[in-house]
Amino acid sequence: MRAITIGGAMVDTIAIVESERIERMTMRNADTAFLLLEEGRKTEALEISAHVGGGAVNVAVAMARLGLDVSTLVKLGRDARAEIVLQRLMSEGVSTRWVVRDARAPTGASVMISSHERDAAIFTFRGANTLLEACDVTADGLAVDLVYVSSLSNQSADCFPDIVSRARKAGAFVAANPGLRQLSARGGAFLESLPHLDLLTINRSEADVLVPALVARFGEGGATVTLEPGETPPPLLARGLSSGGFELTLAGFMAAMHASGVHSVAVTDGGRGAYLSRPGELSYCATVSVPVMGTAGAGDAFAATLSVMLAEGRGAGEALVAASHNAASVIGHVDTQSGLLSREEIAARAGSGEPAVRAWPC
Fold first, then answer.
1. Is the dihedral of CA 105, 135, 300, 214 positive or negative?
2. CA distances from 187 to 170, 182, 199, 217, 326 (A)
3. Residue 216 CB neighbours (<10 A)
4. How far are the Cα atoms of 60, 233, 308, 325, 347 from residue 332, in angstroms, in the given order?
5. Is the preceding omega at residue 355 within 30 degrees of 0, hence cis?
6. 353: Cα within 13 Å, side-chain hemisphere
7. How wide is the angle at C-alpha 211 spanned by C-alphas 27 and 181, nearest 5°?
8. What is the DSSP letter of 152?
9. What is the pLDDT along the chain (362 residues), one digit of tens a residue?
10. What does the alpha-carbon distance between residue 333 and residue 282 come to, in Å, rounded to a whole number?
11. Helical pair 204-218 and 250-259, crossing angle rounded to 10 deg
């Protein structure tokens, strides 16, 4: 299978700080925590290391390790960071044919502070990632089996409708994993593009952002699934989604997304599992329990694996289990790519029968 990933490339600097050296504040009534840095003080780190990351690059490496013939379209500056990214892509067997160098901005970079729960706080400089233009995406580049569009930054997000429309016309399986900023600032254009997507993967916070627009189209509340007597629903299925005073059940959200034109929708809920909705069925997969070294990149690993499996025609349960194992492996490493698994490694881990998958008709 041939694939192209489109989106961001970064050089990540990761600082691991002992919990005793940095204060953490957790909100009582929200799923929010803060790392507190003392102004003017030098804080000792256990380790500081540099790695290549970014959504499109992470997914391209994941797909290469799964055996795909994959290229990536990212925009880099004309600087030393760009050379680091290019070297990494080539070492993983990812084609750089469509990579664009742009002198208007440096290559993107981020600084991650990892401590306590290892859910890193991230400082981001988007740089050349914001400069993607429609003319950078060629017909030859889209002549593949699978087109994956990761989060697009700032004005680059304006290209999203054109990219997915052209990819669908080219006959590719089209998958997208937009970011929170893209959905917040360009939600209308994004929703209009849903008929061009075969798979949309978002996290719970990103799904919440879409609720007001979906309620305006389809109404509040939404359908529910029928549970077996005594069956306890997983957290997000019980809680539903909400934003701006509007609420949707998870099943209602999925139904609204399907009615808007997208065939398959995955919503991840961190350590509480992931959901995949396809017409007529909502599936849920629990997470794989592993020691957490870093959460960055887990979503990319999950979305990449899910996209490949569904593009190959695999079933929902098999795809969810494979994606969950790859994401868990990434969580066991501090960076976004060291833990990415081969197809054989995923098959070996999935052979244990864990994690469990549940499904409900809807």
1. positive
2. 24, 7, 17, 13, 29
3. 10
4. 20, 27, 22, 11, 18
5. yes
6. 0
7. 70
8. -
9. 999 999 999 999 999 888 888 888 887 766 778 888 878 888 888 899 999 999 999 999 999 999 999 999 999 999 999 999 999 999 999 999 999 999 999 999 999 988 777 777 889 999 999 999 999 999 999 999 999 999 998 999 999 999 999 999 999 999 999 999 999 999 999 999 999 999 999 999 999 999 999 999 999 999 899 999 999 999 999 999 999 999 999 999 999 999 999 999 999 999 999 999 999 999 999 999 898 888 899 999 999 999 999 999 999 999 999 999 999 999 999 999 999 999 999 999 998 878 989 999 98
10. 31
11. 70
Q: What is the DSSP letter of 270?
A: G
Q: Which two tokens stand for residue 211?
A: 């609720």
- Residue 339 one-letter amino acid: G
**What are the beta bridge partners of residue 16?**
47, 114
Name the 3-class secondary structure at 24.
Answer: strand
- Residues 46-69: b if buried by 16+ CB within 10 A, e if exposed: eeeeebbbbbbbbbbbbbbbbebe
Beta carbons of 81 and 358 less than 8 angstroms apart: no
Whole-angstrom Cα distance, residue 132 to residue 116?
36
Asked if 113 and 140 count as a contact pair (C-beta separation under 8 A), the reply is: no
| C-alpha to C-alpha distance for 284 and 277, rounded to whole angstroms | 9
What does pTM read for this prediction?
A: 0.94
CB atoms within 10 A of CB 124: 15
**147, 175 contact by CB (below 8 A):** yes
d(CA 307, CA 144): 14
Distance of alpha carbon 164 from alpha carbon 162, whole angstroms: 6
